[in-house]
Design brief:
The complex is a heterodimer of chains A (about 220) and B (about 725). With about 220 residues, chain A is α/β, with parallel strands linked by helices. Chain A contains 5 helices and 11 strands, in the order E-H-E-E-H-E-H-E-E-E-E-H-E-E-E-H. Chain B is built from 25 helices and 28 strands. A 7-stranded mixed β-sheet of chain B has the order 8-10-7-11-9-12-13. Classes of the chains: A alpha/beta (about 220), B alpha+beta (about 725).
Chain lengths: ~220, ~725
């Protein structure tokens, strides 16, 4: 089982992600630097959180034009599962691998707190270890997580079960449209989400609600 | 030797550089001729208060700085303390007060940048940050703007860099109206045998510049920090630096990779007085001369003079001496991280600090004398007067204690600071075991099963104002207490001493007495001071701030699973008070918030009692029958219990009878804790406390959804939470 974590200058939750994957799967992921042109054969590719290029221009905008991105598109087209968390989600939307955009939080400030997520589609390869409609805990930490897409796109997302995670119980921290926290692409192999499941995977984090996401994606039996 | 002096030095210029007549005479002697303008800048940068500690050095020397765990004490970028298994914690606290008042976002951001650099310059990866903030009174027209800017600046920098903020403190007081305080703390982890310092070794080795380009920002910043503010403050905005956390993050990774490659002989970050201080430090510590060719320095602006380049405080820059044979490897690392670098100089054996610009020598000074011969003053001081005792019986009581509790819960100093700390990434690195809002932040040490570090930042400025000696003691004692309250063994501390103008004997008296108090407490509680920073001249229009010696303490936890928080009590757990009933209302929050008085002596600290109770609480927590713990500080017993109830979303019923209920409920007598104990262990706990000779009483139990204290207080947890949580967001929203 091979996981690849792509690292950009300014990525800063790469270490969290690597530690989480190592603890959950027993295998240490390989890392790929943004200037490389190929992604080695992988069962799962992850773009971690952070502030790639300092969020300059727009969060994710510069990273989306990095040399590695061609290879990422090809990997996505081959159907390999890809997860973008936080800045990773921003990069995926900027690269056009996921629809919509992530705007500045409605409250205009960075927000780091725990929210509740509803599993709105438990039949994706990223959420199969959760129950449909289950409410889980998950931390967020971002400045630009206010998801937006136009009516037509939203309709497609909603009607095709492509909204996988929704902020629940009035905990939407950023004003995202339809309380959207995470979506998948049409094919179902690319997931983008603002919350940080990698920061809630063990007792030391006071809970492990984030763990099953990775177990799902890695095809692990809990 | 002669150096062409294109700019004639005038007496005004000398005083504008913050140099006295005597200092100028000494400079003439040491230079052996009239210095050039660039040299004047260099002398002034090295001899200002901020860099030379000339007013405080005599007193700082009295602080205990050694201990069995101390590997490096004050004098380097940060202190280094052994935490076992070959690991060390590297930490320091530093102020960025003046810049943050002038331009709150960038001032606070670059304060974060500076302290993080201090830590990773030594080879440590930053793992935790805290910040201690003091603002003016909430009604002051600038306060809201300053709070919002400072918090956004700290968050903007720290979040992007990727360090969790795990603690801090915030006070509001009119005495900070025109001079806020922003004290930033950072701690990092390294291996004991892989610590890097600024001490250069070897002659003829390349001096390498790495990081951001040099611009005109911050020219004269350190000199600004060594003077009082006046009406021209807005003109000083150009002396505030601009931060770029992205470059800093790349610099961190590049430096750590470079250090691991074995190429680094010496390294020093460019902080106050940039290129000047860093180069002088490297040479002087290594008994070497340094020659710099400024034409090689990467610049952001055109036509910068040697003077501007030597005094620029542009951020995110490093100076290093590298092994020439590993140059290729080093270059690859710099290029990978997209950082500017250049060989800008060479180490020499002549102990001179030589600066070339456009092929001409513009400075040639004795490198060791720049630092070693810096003036040291024994400034006259007046021991501050003390308040007469204030007996509780002479302090009015209130009619409604429930209402009093709510008033205090929603007062600016006590109200929840959630609005602030939720703007900081508290979870990044996935090792945060306790987030802000409790007594101390806890961060797990990677690579070990249970090992963790605890961090707390403390000082009670109103106590220091009333009695600097007791206030200094109390700052250390409270820090010690907060660490014990989560189950950590306090191992060392850093101090950030913020005071007014030391040339005034009454201010100097505050500084001297506070240091005396800090020293006594550090010694008694085995918390050596391993690093620190002094910020003087915190005055505007002649009005000084409250004396504010912030203490940042670090504690060691063998197994974080045994640590506790303030909100972790279980239903039916027994409430014990460690310590005795309070009687002291002098300088209390009760006095200030309910009676509008700020008088009386602060509560004294008995250091032996502090130690005995701290040891007992800590060891009890480690044996796992304590479920929650909170120290009793601002606001006394009632506020302590209220905070535990709010954090745990659970009520408590407390037995209470007192002749002086105001003192008993809100008195701030020191060295006290509330602990909750599982009912089946309550008798054993009591027996242990008895055996340890620690004063205690069993006062009630947790449960229900209201806090009831005797017949005087009964409030629902929801109401308390509402009062506690809403003040700051409402205030910031202008409500």
């Amino acid at each position: 089982m091979k996981t690849t974590v792509i690292i950009f200058p300014g990525s800063n939750r790469d270490r969290d992600m690597i530690a989480a994957i190592t603890k959950i799967s027993g295998h240490t992921p390989q890392t790929v630097w943004h200037t490389e042109l190929e992604i080695p054969a992988s069962d799962l590719v992850i773009i971690p959180g952070g502030f790639s290029y300092g969020d300059y221009l727009r969060a994710g905008a510069i990273a989306a034009r990095s040399p590695i991105m061609d290879a990422l598109s090809k990997t996505a087209n081959r159907g390999v599962p890809i997860i973008g968390v936080c800045n990773g989600f921003q990069i995926l939307t900027e690269a056009g691998l996921l629809p919509g955009a992530l705007m500045r939080n409605a409250g205009l400030t960075f927000v780091c707190r725990e929210v509740k997520l509803e599993i709105t589609n438990a039949e994706t390869q990223f959420s199969s270890r959760y129950g449909q409609g289950e409410i889980i805990r998950c931390p967020v930490a971002h400045h630009d997580g206010n998801y937006y897409a136009d009516e037509a796109v939203l309709k497609k997302l909603e009607n095709n079960g492509r909204v996988v995670f929704r902020y629940a119980e009035g905990t939407n921290p950023n004003g995202s449209v339809n309380d959207i926290a995470g979506i998948i692409n049409e094919r179902g192999n690319v997931l983008g989400m603002m919350p940080h499941p990698e920061n809630l995977i063990e007792d030391a984090h006071t809970g492990d609600d984030g763990r099953r996401l990775f177990e799902s994606a890695l095809g692990l039996v809990a | 030797m002669s150096i062409p002096n294109e700019i004639q030095i005038t007496p005004e210029m000398i005083s504008d550089h913050g140099l006295s007549n005597d200092e100028w005479q000494r400079i003439l002697e040491l230079t052996g001729r009239e210095p050039s303008y660039t040299e004047l800048g260099i002398w002034s940068a090295m001899w200002n208060e901020h860099c030379s500690y000339k007013s405080s050095k005599k007193w700082l020397r009295t602080l205990p700085t050694e201990g069995p765990r101390v590997i490096l004490g004050p004098g380097e970028n940060a202190g280094v303390v052994d935490i076992g298994d070959g690991d060390v914690v590297v930490f320091k606290m530093e102020s960025h007060n003046h810049p943050s008042y002038i331009e709150p976002y960038q001032g606070a951001a670059t304060g974060m940048g500076g302290i993080l650099r201090d830590v990773f310059t030594m080879g440590a990866r930053p793992i935790a940050a805290m910040n201690a903030l003091r603002f003016g009174e909430p009604d002051h027209p600038k306060t809201r703007h300053l709070v919002s800017g400072v918090v956004a600046g700290i968050g903007g920098y720290g979040n992007s860099f990727g360090v969790p903020t795990v603690g801090g403190e915030v006070n509001f007081h009119a005495r900070y109206n025109d001079n806020i305080l922003v004290n930033a703390f950072a701690a990092g982890l390294a291996k004991a045998d892989q610590i890097f310092t600024s001490q250069a070794e070897g002659v003829g080795l390349p001096v390498v510049y790495l990081g951001a380009k040099t611009g005109r920002d911050g020219v004269g910043g350190a000199t600004m920090a060594s003077a009082e503010f006046d009406d021209d403050i807005d003109e000083k905005r150009p002396t505030v630096q601009v931060g770029d956390p992205f470059t800093e993050k790349c610099l961190l990774e590049a430096c750590l990779e470079l250090m691991a490659s074995g190429a680094v002989i010496a390294i020093q970050d460019m902080g106050a007085a940039g290129l000047t201080c860093s180069a002088v430090e490297m040479g002087a510590k290594g008994d070497l001369g340094i020659e710099l060719d400024l034409d090689k320095v990467p610049c952001r602006e055109e036509n910068m003079s040697a003077y501007e380049m030597m005094l620029s405080e542009s951020q995110e820059r490093m100076l290093m001496v590298l092994r020439p044979e590993l140059e290729e490897q080093a270059t690859a690392i710099f290029e990978k991280w997209g950082l500017d670098f250049a060989i800008v100089g060479i180490t020499t054996d002549d102990l001179r600090f030589r600066i070339l610009r456009h092929g001409e020598e513009v400075a040639n000074l004795p490198i060791k004398k720049l630092g070693d011969e810096a003036p040291e003053y024994d400034r006259p001081y007046i021991t501050p007067g003390k308040y007469n005792d204030l007996a509780a019986a002479d302090v009015p009581q209130v009619d409604d204690y429930s209402a009093a509790l709510i008033t205090i819960l929603q007062s600016p100093d006590i109200a929840s600071k959630r609005w602030i700390y939720e703007q900081y990434d508290t979870l990044i690195q996935a090792n945060t075991m306790q987030v802000p809002g409790g007594d101390a932040g806890i961060v797990r040490v990677e690579g070990h099963d249970g090992k963790a570090l605890a961090f707390s930042s403390d000082v009670t400025p109103r106590y220091c104002e009333a009695d600097p000696f007791e206030g200094g003691k109390q700052a250390v004692a409270e820090c010690y207490r907060n660490l014990c309250a989560v189950g950590a063994e306090p191992i060392a501390a850093t101090d950030n001493l913020n005071f007014g103008n030391p040339e005034k004997p009454e201010i100097m008296g505050q500084l001297v007495k506070a240091i005396e108090g800090i020293g006594e407490a550090c010694l008694a509680l085995s918390m050596p001071i391993v690093s620190g920073n002094v910020s003087l001249y915190n005055e505007t229009q002649g009005q000084a701030i409250l004396p504010t010696p912030t203490i940042g303490g670090v504690g060691l936890i063998a197994d974080y699973r045994t640590s506790v928080g303030i909100g972790s009590a279980g239903q039916g757990d027994i409430v014990f008070l460690i310590g005795t009933e309070a009687t002291h209302l002098g300088q209390s929050i009760y006095l200030r918030e309910l009676l509008d008085r700020e008088d009386g002596p602060p509560p004294p600290v008995d250091l032996q009692t502090e130690w005995a109770r701290g040891e007992f609480v800590r060891t009890s927590i480690n044996t796992e029958y304590i479920t929650a713990c909170h120290d009793i500080s601002d606001g006394g017993l009632a506020i302590c219990l209220a905070e535990m109830c709010i954090a745990g979303q659970m009520g408590a019923t407390i037995e209470h009878q007192s002749e002086q209920p105001h003192a008993s409920l809100f008195g701030e007598d020191q060295s006290r804790y509330i602990v909750s104990v599982r009912p089946d262990y309550a008798n054993m706990f009591a027996a242990n406390a008895e055996a340890a000779g620690v004063s205690f009483s069993r006062i009630g139990e947790f449960g229900g959804n209201a806090l009831t204290i005797g017949a005087l207080i009964s409030i629902s947890v929801d109401d308390m939470q509402h009062a506690h949580e809403n003040w700051l967001p409402d205030y910031m929203a202008g409500k």
